[in-house]
Design brief:
- This protein is mainly α and 456 residues long.
- The protein contains 18 helices and 2 strands.
- It has a two-stranded antiparallel sheet with strand order 1-2.
- Strand 1 and strand 2 (379-380) form a beta hairpin.
- Helix 4 (74-82) packs antiparallel against helix 5, helix 5 (90-120) packs across helix 16 (381-408) and helix 8 runs antiparallel to helix 14 (304-340).
């Protein structure tokens, strides 16, 4: 059989924006703000930034090393670098994790599209807090509407991924990531100019050291892992498209900085507005679909047109953040089918899209009264996918990746990739990286894993 020609990113900017787009998603814009609200604000942010440095960036570099060294999809990449070591099989688990996440993540991405449409036609104007709760509950349990939006967002993802790395993923990232930043800055500006917005800013940047406890540390550790797309196959797959001249450490640090900046901007977008109208900052996972429409309506009550525009821009931002991550998740499985079964990229992308449409439809139906047959041990299929991938698969893949790189892959091979074949003088930094990946990262990930299962 003829060898498949390997694609690659066309520019350094494309590398950074595409990989940052993978890391920047709903984890930053949705999960980070409510986690910050539940864990003391500024204290959580400081610990989170430290966790990105000590856990997120070293784990990202490890996936960079595996992907670029192998120049293959995630499953094959782990096989190549791990050889006959049984740990090399975790590449398949990483692909499966990304595949399953794509199925239910598309459902949440579809919700964002519904809220764009609802904002556009004014359906979210003039309601009470109870109205927004009822609206989300009714919509999410509808047997048709959420599935329509899920299919639509997966179609958009397919149309980007099928065009390949340079003409699809890279071009889309160069358009969407700057747009995402512009939308963020516009909404942050509007939110910070509201009356009493200073209280929200203070909450984000003035640490209350009495809030520090073990749960805050665990929350920050878990969030750093979640928000940087570690162990989903995305980072490893994108790294396989890097050139041999890409500085892996610099790229990981730049992406980590972008990840932190977007997360903090998301907090500045939400908390000044929430404090302005007296909404509790620890509203939890319901924040963006139930609490925030009410916040925007109250905050801009005297300027309804501005409130309408801000609400519309916010859900456009949310949809764009979701789409950039969905593209990278989709690419993990597309690259796997394309290379392992040697079928055209378009066919591989179509297989993934159809499969995820089916998964997404079942996950969505499980949330409604007609989906009782899709419950597992009393939990919806959506919750099962979320739990299995987020609390079991991700920590296991992350932990075993650290063990593989830190303890079994020859350090000369790791050093070769880390230093771009010795052209970069980063010997001391390499020793720090090896220490973190051998000892610190596995212990932290194991701690998170056991805590999530309620064992500690």
């Amino acid at each position: 059989m003829a060898k498949l020609e390997r694609a690659s990113f066309g520019s350094k900017l494309g590398v950074i924006l595409a990989t940052a787009g993978s890391a920047v998603g709903l984890g930053n814009v949705w999960r980070f703000p409510y986690m910050t609200g539940q864990n003391g604000g500024a204290v959580f942010i400081l610990i989170y930034v430290g966790c990105v440095l000590l856990l997120g960036i070293p784990c990202m570099i490890s996936e960079f090393i595996i992907g670029r060294r192998a120049q293959a999809n995630t499953a094959r990449a782990y096989r190549k670098i791990g050889g006959r070591n049984p740990l090399s099989l975790i590449g398949y688990m990483s692909v499966l994790t990304g595949f399953l996440i794509t199925g239910y993540y598309a459902v949440v991405s579809g919700w964002c599209l519904e809220y764009i449409w609802a904002s556009l036609i004014g359906r979210l104007n003039g309601g009470s807090p109870e109205f927004f709760t009822d609206y989300f509950t009714t919509f999410s349990q509808d047997p048709v509407k959420p599935i329509f939006w899920t299919f639509l967002v997966l179609l958009a993802t397919f149309l980007i991924v099928e065009h390949g790395v340079r003409d699809g993923i890279e071009k889309a990232s160069k358009l969407m990531m700057p747009t995402l930043f512009i939308l963020l800055l516009v909404i942050v500006g509007a939110s910070c100019m509201l009356p009493n917005a200073g209280k929200g800013i203070e909450f984000l940047f003035k640490p209350d050291w009495t809030m520090i406890n073990g749960d805050v540390f665990l929350g920050a550790l878990g969030q750093s892992f979640y928000s940087m797309s570690i162990a989903m196959g995305c980072i490893c797959t994108y790294a396989s498209y890097f050139s041999k001249h890409t500085n892996l450490t610099t790229s990981a640090v730049q992406i980590g900085i972008i990840d932190c900046v977007v997360a903090i901007l998301a907090g500045l977008m939400i908390f000044p507005a929430a404090f302005s109208v007296g909404v509790n900052p620890d509203s939890g996972p319901s924040l963006i679909f139930i609490t925030l429409p009410n916040v925007f309506q109250q905050a801009f009550a005297t300027m309804p047109v501005v409130g309408y525009v801000i609400s519309l821009l916010f859900y456009a931002l949310l949809s764009m953040a979701a789409l950039t991550s969905l593209i990278s998740l989709h690419e993990v499985s597309t690259a796997f089918f394309h290379e392992e079964f040697r079928i055209p990229r378009k066919h591989a992308a179509l297989i993934v899209t159809i499969s995820c449409c089916v998964m997404g439809a079942f996950c969505s139906l499980s949330l409604g009264p007609s989906g009782q047959f899709l419950h597992v041990l009393g939990n919806t299929l959506f919750d099962v996918f979320d739990f299995v991938t987020g609390q079991i698969f991700l920590p296991i893949v992350g932990f075993l990746t650290c063990i593989l790189i830190g303890w079994f892959v020859p350090h000369r091979l790791v050093h070769d990739e880390f230093t771009n074949s010795g052209t970069l003088r980063v010997t001391r930094l390499f020793h720090v990286y090896i220490f973190l990946i051998k000892y610190v990262c596995p212990i932290c990930i194991l701690w998170i894993f056991l805590h999530q299962l309620g064992l500690i």
